[in-house]
Amino acid sequence: MEIQKTIEALNSLIVINNDRIEGYKTANEETNETDLKMLFSDLMQTSVACRRELVEEVKKLGGTPDGGTRTTGKFFRVWMDVKAALTGNDRESILNSCEYGEDVALETYKKVLVHDPQETNSKEQDMLNKQYALLKADHDKVKELRDTIANEKQHAE
User: Which of 22, 45, 97, 119 is the most buried (most CB within 10 A)?
Assistant: First the structure.
């Protein structure tokens, strides 16, 4: 295990958490509905906590934590802005956008945990597995709410 590769892997997870934080800030600003604001705030807090642990680990390894977002994260935020404006803050559309972002976050974690496990030690893998479980629970909340709204819409038609 090369320390620089470990730092790069952890930094990729810091960046995806930065993307999530920015995406949920945008989603929070795009809705006036209290329940969605609370949901987005909770989802954002998950990434704030995950990012904090990742930053500590990168510093412990002697690296510099990445403070940016990925281009895809920027596109995600712009897409949410446009989508929300076009749909008049349609709950299902906003949640569809959020679920897409959740899928991207989970895939990034899977890449480090499954495809590149040699880049992290067992302690780091434990931390990442716990974070993955938190993000998966967040994903499932978004999906469940989105599905409930879609079903309500379908029954109303």
Answer: 97
Q: Collect all residues with Cβ–Cβ distance below 8 Å to 138 and sequence separation of at least 6.
A: 42, 43, 46, 102
CA geometry: angle 78, 81, 83, nearest 5 deg: 105
**Of 56, 96, 90, the residue nearest 76 (C-alpha):** 96
Tens-level pLDDT at each residue, the chain (157 residues): 699 999 999 999 999 999 888 888 877 887 788 998 999 999 999 999 999 999 999 999 999 999 887 766 655 665 566 566 556 767 777 788 788 888 889 999 999 999 888 889 999 999 999 999 999 999 999 999 989 988 988 888 7
Question: How far is it, in rounded angstroms, from Cα 8 to Cα 141?
Answer: 30
On the CB side of 49, how many CA atoms lie within 13 Å of its CA? 13
Task: For residue 103, give the H/E element and its range.
Answer: helix 91-110
Give the C-alpha separation, 13 to 112, whole Å.
8
Task: Give the relative orientation of helices 122-156 and 34-60 as an angle to the nearest 10 degrees.
Answer: 170
Total Cβ atoms within 10 A of residue 1: 11
CB atoms closer than 10 angstroms to residue 37: 14
